[in-house]
């Protein structure tokens, strides 16, 4: 086994940033203006896939001081960004997200390094060109691990940030008016060792239906082992013009779990109560759900004593539905919910057609939604809240208001019983990534906050950011 040298320094200041490029900034189109056709663009399926416009020449740039962006603009950005990041870079022969513009970091923004005793890395400060996995805890230490419905090994998580993110984070000190630059990206990716998928899929099916990658898995904080892993979920979080709070987009494999509230076609409003005795699905084709399990016998909260997972997605595309939500949310908000759902549904079908023509394994993944803010006249100095129902609702929240990725936020889809009528609340990204009054919008990033704490204690390691 190879061994890693323990890194005693706890934070990292990432240098050599002068070569990093900055994308132009921009914004256009009225929040939730009707858009009849929310579809993919032909250039998304041509090589190379270009990144979406994000700056002053983008749909997010205000026109004459007015926000003219549509709901569909945000979903199109999300899918195009995902397709851009997951294409093969012809120079590196790796996904763009593993290329020179991105580095893998841990929860404290510490980059992963090659083994110290590597003859090509005698100082121990060479950035690793390999995917290194050690984190198995999702959405906070109290929310537990994710397993398949059969397996006894947990999912792993990796974090990747790009040059624009690094440049913004390297500024010190950070003031309340500082923001991440347009083009900044943070990715969080969920992985399963392929052996955990073999009870469900043949080796050929795994290779055809999943993106797989060789990874080094840190087993006991000292030794590592090599393993083939499959991508099962991914957050794509990025800053566009006029949206320093980030667009919080998320993707999953189609076989992850069934939906409790969902529709195969247009959005259907459901005003019945959540029923714990309802069988969520009679299909056994899901990775994290056992067929014919009732909602009450599956788990929306962490079952700490179990080493298998049996769960489901409460809201398809993160669009809240059912009682008591439909009796508490405003009619205008529920109209936005319906449009949001229909746009995602239509866009997913449009993308699948393009990917199927390429026989791409990405056609087996789906866009699960995104959440952001309507920022015109928004006072960030007052903070950011994820509340979606009165009396404390943040009426500037947009997109998938109950967004949760089953592979990354399995046990934070809702607080307690979905039927609660007192202090009823549903979750979204801003429930955990909100900020208090007077804070910089940069504080929405947990890894940045951890980094800032360590920088303040002068525990620093200077590392070149150029990939080998």
Describe this structure in words.
- The chain is of the alpha+beta class and 468 residues long.
- 16% of the residues lie in helices and 18% in strands.
- The chain contains seven helices and 13 strands.
- It has helices at residues 71-85, 163-170, 203-209, 325-328, 331-357, 429-433, 446-456, and strands spanning 11-15, 102-105, 131-133, 156-162, 185-193, 212-218, 224-240, 243-253, 259-261, 313-315, 365-373, 397-399, 460-464.
- Strands 2, 3, 4, 5, 6, 7, 8, 11 and 12 form a nine-stranded mixed beta sheet that branches. Strands 1-13 form a two-stranded parallel sheet.
- A hairpin with a 2-residue loop joins strand 7 (224-240) and strand 8 (243-253).
- Helix 1 runs parallel beside helix 5.
- The protein is globular and about 65 Å long.
- The two termini are 23 Å apart.
- The model is unreliable at 1-34 and 461-468 (pLDDT under 50).
Structural class: alpha+beta
What summary fits the major beta sheet? Answer: 9 strands, mixed
Secondary-structure element order, N to C? EHEEEHEHEEEEEHHEEHHE
Extract low-pLDDT stretches: 1-34, 461-468
For the CA atoms, what is the radius of gyration?
21 Å
Strand percentage? 15-25%
Q: Measure the end-to-end span.
A: 23 Å
The count of helical stretches stands at 7
**Rounded mean pLDDT score:** 86
The general outline is globular
Total beta strand runs: 13
């Amino acid at each position: 086994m190879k061994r890693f040298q323990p890194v005693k320094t706890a934070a990292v200041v990432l240098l050599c940033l002068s070569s990093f490029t900055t994308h132009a900034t921009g914004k256009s189109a009225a929040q939730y203006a009707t858009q009849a056709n929310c579809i993919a663009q032909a250039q998304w399926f041509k090589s190379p896939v270009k990144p979406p416009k994000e700056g002053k020449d983008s749909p997010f740039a205000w026109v004459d001081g007015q926000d003219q962006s549509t709901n569909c603009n945000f979903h199109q950005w999300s899918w195009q960004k995902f397709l851009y990041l997951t294409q093969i870079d012809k120079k590196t022969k790796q996904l763009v997200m593993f290329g020179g513009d991105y580095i893998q970091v841990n929860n404290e923004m510490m980059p992963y390094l090659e083994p110290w005793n590597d003859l090509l890395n005698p100082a121990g400060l060479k950035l690793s060109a390999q995917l290194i996995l050690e984190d198995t805890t999702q959405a906070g230490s109290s929310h537990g691990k994710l397993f398949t419905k059969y397996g006894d090994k947990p999912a792993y998580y990796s974090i990747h940030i790009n040059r624009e993110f690094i440049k913004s984070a390297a500024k010190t000190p950070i003031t309340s008016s500082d923001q991440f630059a347009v083009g900044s990206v943070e990715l969080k990716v969920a992985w399963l060792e392929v052996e955990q998928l073999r009870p469900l899929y043949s080796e050929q099916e795994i290779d055809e239906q999943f993106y797989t990658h060789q990874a080094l898995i840190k087993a006991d904080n000292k030794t590592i082992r090599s393993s083939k892993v499959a991508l099962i979920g991914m957050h794509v979080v990025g800053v566009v013009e006029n949206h320093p709070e980030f667009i919080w987009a998320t993707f999953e494999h189609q076989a992850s779990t069934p939906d409790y509230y969902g529709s195969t076609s247009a959005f259907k409003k459901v005003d019945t109560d959540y029923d714990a005795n309802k069988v969520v699905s009679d299909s056994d084709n899901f990775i994290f759900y056992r067929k014919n399990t009732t909602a009450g016998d599956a788990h929306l909260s962490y079952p700490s004593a179990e080493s298998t997972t049996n769960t489901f997605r409460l809201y398809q595309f993160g669009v809240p539905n059912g009682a008591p939500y439909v009796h508490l949310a405003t009619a205008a908000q529920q109209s936005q919910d319906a449009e949001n759902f229909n746009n995602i549904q239509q866009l997913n079908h449009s993308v699948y057609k393009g990917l199927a023509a390429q026989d791409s394994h990405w056609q087996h993944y789906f866009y699960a939604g995104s959440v952001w803010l309507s920022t015109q006249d928004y006072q960030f100095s007052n903070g950011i809240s994820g509340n979606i129902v009165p009396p404390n609702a943040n009426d500037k929240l947009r997109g998938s208001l109950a967004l949760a990725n089953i592979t990354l936020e399995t046990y934070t889809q809702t607080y307690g019983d979905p039927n609660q009528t007192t202090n009823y609340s549903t979750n979204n990204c801003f429930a955990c990534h909100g900020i208090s009054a007077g804070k910089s919008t940069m504080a929405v990033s947990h890894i940045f906050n951890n980094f800032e704490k360590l920088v303040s204690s002068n525990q620093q390691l200077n590392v070149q950011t150029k990939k080998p």
